[in-house]
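Subject: Sanity check before I submit

Could someone independently write out the C-alpha cells for this chain? I want to compare against mine line by line before I put it in a report. The sequence has 417 residues.
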Amino acid sequence: MNELEENQQTVKKSGFGRGLIFGVIAGLSIAILAGVVLLNVFYHKGFVHIGVNGEIYVQDTATTEDEGIGSEVEAKLNAMDSLMDLFYMEDVDTDTAKEMIYKAYLASYGDKYTVYYTPDEYQSLVESTTGKFYGIGAVCQKSDDGAVLVIDAYEDAPAYAAGLRNGDKITTVDGTDITDMDLSSAVALIKGDKGTSVHLDAIRDETAFSVDVVRDEIHTQTVKYEMRENQIGYLSISEFDDVTTQQYKDALQALEDAGMQGLVIDLRDNPGGVLDTVVKMLDYTLPDGLIVYTENKSGKRTEYKGTDGHELDIPIAVLVNGNSASASEIFAGAMQDYDKGEIIGTQTFGKGIVQTIKPLTDGSAIKLTTAKYYTPNGQNIHGQGVTPDITVEQGTDENEDAQWNTAVEYLMEEMQK
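---
Independent answer below. Compare away.
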C-alpha cells in the first residue's frame, strides 16, 4: 500500500468516525426533541403538571385549569371581591379567603369525607399516617356534637402532662372553633413544630376548661398488648398507620413466646386508617386468599389478596363497637367471613368507602371518595357496619368490661376443644 492509499484509508476511517458521532448526536437530539414534544402535549392535555417547587406531577387522568365550573364563577367572584374592597370596613386575608372557597366548593358535594387540605394540613396528614410527627400525643376522633374527642392520651406525651384525659372534648384550637371542621383539618391545627405551644379549649363532663400544651416529637404506639389470665393474649389496636403492621407482628411474636393459647384483638374506638396496612395485617393473620375488594364508580373491581403463607392458628375473639370504623371494619369483616375469629360487641360504624388523596401542584391536596369496599363474601359495610357474632352491650359499671368477659368465656370454651 503506497502513501496515497494509506492517506485515503485514514481519511475514510476518520470520516466514518465523524459520521458515527454525528449520527449518535442526531439520534439523541431527535429523541430528546420527541420527548420534549410529547411532554408538552401531555402538559397541555392535563396529564402532566408542574408544581410551585418545580416538582413534576404525572397522573393517569387528564385535568386542566380551563375545565370545570371555575370559568363560570370567576367573574362573579371578582365582582364580589371588588365590592368587598370598596365597602367592607375590615381587612381580609386573601390567602385565607381562597382556601375557604376551595373548602366550601368540595363541601357542596355533600360528602363529609371529600375535603380540601391546605399545604400545611396536607403535610400534617402525611405525617399522621407515618406514625411519627410533632404534636401533643393524643388519639382523637370526631364526636357527635362536632368536637374532637380524645380517646387515647399517651401517658408519656405532652397532652397528658398538660391535663388532658380520655373522654375530653376539644372545641377550639388557638381560638379557632373546630366543631365544624373534619377531623384531619382539626388535628392539623393541633399539631405543629416541636417546642411551640397550642392553646386548647375543652369540655370534661360538661365543665369547660383550657390547657396550653407544648408540642413535642411523638412516636405513635398504635398497638398495645399484654398476657392476661389463662394464657389469653390481649392486643389493642388504636388505628391503622404505616407503623402498625410491624407493631402488630412484634406484639403477636411476644405473646406467642409467652405461651399464648387464645387471643383477643380489641378494635373498639378504632377509627380506621391506611388500607394497605390492614391488608398486610390480615395477610399475616388469615389463610392466603381474598381479603377485601373495592369497586369504583365505573364498576372496576380491585382485589387485595393475602399471599405470605402465614396464618394464626389459635382461637381469636375480635372486640368492636359503634366507633370501630373503616379499616377496623375491613379487619372484622374479613375475620368473620373466614370464620377466623368471633366478632363480639356492638354494630360497627358503617364506613365502607375508600378515600384517595390527590396532591395539587401548590402543595395542597384533595381527599375524595373513589370507591366502595366489600368483604371477601361481598358484604357492603357502608351505612350498615359489621354485625357482631355475639352482641354485647357495655353496662354502666365502669369497672366491668362485659365485652371482654364474653370474649374470655368464648375463648375458654374454644381452648378446651
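---
OP: Matches mine. For the report I'm noting this point. DSSP finds ten helices and 21 strands in the chain.
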